[in-house]
Every structure is written in structure tokens, then in C-alpha cells.
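User: Okay, second chain of the day. Same drill as before: sequence in, C-alpha cells out.
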Amino acid sequence: MFQRISSCLSAFALALILAACVGPGIQAEQPMEIRHGVIEQITLVQLPSNHHMGVGAIVGGMAGLGIGSLIGAGSGRDVAMVLGTIGGALVGNEVQKKYEQPVQGQQIIVRVANGVLISVTQPSNPGLRQGQRVYVEGSGENARVVPR
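Assistant: Same drill. C-alpha cells below.
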């Protein structure tokens, strides 16, 4: 009976995790705005990590639960599942901490053809320099500066 309940709970937790990983609904493809200009200034910045907090602990806990369910039988199996879940969550959390470090980035000021200044913050691109002619692809948070 306990095995059936734990199987159902494991399946439910896995479905919940997969549902959380799904991004926003698929949207119609919008045309990308591309502008051209010259880089006026580049400032180095630190970008926050894009990893979601707690995912490492959840995935580690689920893996530990799965491994623990393979060990022993009866109450020994129950103990192994609890210890596996706790241990997996701790290990998963520690692994995720390594990926939470800030990422080197650039704030780039571009003067586009009509004279307007645009600021784009993106991951570091060593191929960009002040005075270089570039394209600004996209807009808002999705804007990127690329060499011409």
C-alpha cells in the first residue's frame, strides 16, 4: 500500500516539476526589430544568475527519493527514502549554489542612425569596442548588440 502511495506521490511531484519548467504559452512569431548604429560607450557590469532558486534542492530530493526507494524493504525502505530525499535535497542545493554566481556583462550605449541613444545590457562580448558599427537586434529585455 505504501509503495503505491509513494509511486503516486512521486509521479505527481514529477508532473509538478515538469509543469513548472514549461514557459509561457507559444506566441505568434513577431518580426524582430533591427537597428544599426555606433557604440558610444561600454561599461562592465555584473549580471544576476538566471537560475531559479530551489530547483536544485527539488531535483536532488526527487533523485534521492528514487534512489532510496530501490534500497531495502519494509520500514528500512521507508527510512532509506526519507534519508535519500533529505540527502539529495542538500546535495542539489549545494550544486545549484555554484551556478548562482553573477555573470560578467556589458552595458552598451549605442547611437542609432536617427541620433537616439539606446542602452543594452547583455552578457559580455569581447568582440565589441567603442566606435564600432553594430546592429541592435530586438527590443526591451531581448535586445542584443551584435557586430556589423
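The first helix runs from residue 2 to 21.

User: Thanks, on to the next one.
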